[in-house]
Amino acid sequence: xxxxxxxxxxxxxxxxxxxxxxxxxxxxxxxxxxxxxxxxxxxxxxxxxxxxxxxxxxxxxxxxxxxxxxxxxxxxxxxxxxxxxxxxxxxxxxxxxxxxxxxxxxxxxxxxxxxxxxxxxxxxxxxxxxxxxxxxxxxxxxxxxxxxxxxxxxxxxxxxxxxxxxxxxxxxxxxxxxxxxxxxxxxxxxxxxxxxxxxxxxxxxxxxxxxxxxxxxxxxxxxxxxxxxxxxxxxxxxx
Length: 239
Known about the structure:
about 240 residues
């Protein structure tokens, strides 16, 4: 089995576990990013399964896996959308924080710690992996493991920073310099461009159905956009 977890990355994010649910703490950027990602995810769910766009539970009867779940910022909304949710993270501290938070609000979510390929999980209708692939040791092996967890007819959602001059300047340079993102969070050389990620997914048998940028402006804040220069989110399906 190829190891995809970088111990230093797991340690970095594990050290932030206690503040994960504080919208003004070290994960403040994720709290601002989460509603934007959820908007894309909800639309992708409705398009993929052709459900009622007004339904509060479009994932009722479906299973969802969030890989690199942190303390559960995405797992909890997926559970509220009706899914039977499993969250996996490389940092034991994050899993402990996620379990405690879910239990505190009465949500039943199965949280696991460790290397995804070693956990013996089955297939899932929805697989999400947001802001994670830039932190793994072997992108090809990691993506292959994600695809193995996706059931036939399933939907995958990935998001990650683009590898551009703008992302180097703003996400690695400016954002970490002013404390918007904790120092050491990003390493530009590990970023991946949309075309490259699409090619990797297609080689694994998936079809990328939509790719949108996540951009920032003073007027709109973080928002879905055609501008993919900083960050992007995509959906992919398996027939």
